[in-house]
Design a protein that fits this description.
This protein is of the alpha+beta class. The protein has one domain: Roll (2,3-Dihydroxybiphenyl 1,2-Dioxygenase, domain 1), CATH 3.10.180. Helices cover 19% and strands 35% of the residues. The strands form three sheets. It has a nine-stranded mixed beta sheet with strand order 11-6-7-8-5-12-15-14-13.
Amino acid sequence: MTFHNEPNVYVNQVQLKVTELERSLTFYKEIIGLKVLSQTEESAILTADGKTPLVTIIEPDNVTPKEPRRTGLYHFALLLPSRADLAACLKHLVESGYPLQGASDHLVSEAIYLGDPDGNGIEIYADRPAEKWEWMNDSIEMGTVALDVEDLFSQWNGEKWQGLPAGTIMGHIHLHVANLHEAEQFYCEGLGFEIVTRYGGQALFISTGRYHHHIGLNTWNGLGAPAPSEKSAGLEHYTLVFPSDDERQKAVERLEKLNISVEVVKKGLHVKDPSGTQIILAV
């Protein structure tokens, strides 16, 4: 998975606000197949390999249900090591009876979609080999067709589900934004991502290192959609990893030229995109 290490910039974890911690813990352990890395009365850090944080869930005081038609999380996407792993995961999900929201073949990948108990969107997917991706100059060919479930199930090795494999990583994040032009300026001119495909004037996929996308951006919740309130369940923040302090500092300087302020926090550097989504810039 060379698209999620140096010299690329990529998403490696998300933090979510939930309304009932224990309910969410049950979901992420039993349905998604993550493990608890550490836990307090108000939060839990979840992992696939027993050491690397992927998803943190927190139950803040006075948290309210997820507000509709806001900017923020469309879905976060867990990338599995192989197609056989995706087959095993889909079989488990079907047998669990938990409702799925979709299953698609995107040409570059195959994906399953569902939501957590608070309505936070989740994609679980496996990439096709990068050498099979089709490019037209700097634009990648992607699509959305029905997943061939029968063919995918043929990859299942017959082993009992043991949760997500240790090689699972955060593959990408997809966000609702208020204005696509402002988002493009922030993420491309500021943070240094490159556009890999556009979907009319409504969505934009961006990446580093010619991945099919590390970040998706869309205005499907409406142009000018408001940011959620601080009390709303949903995405608290996500983390972008830079290959070095130097590369991160270059991004900070580009953001400052766009009059976007970056703050120092315990976990790294903190910035908000133009739609109010909070990002930790880490190394």
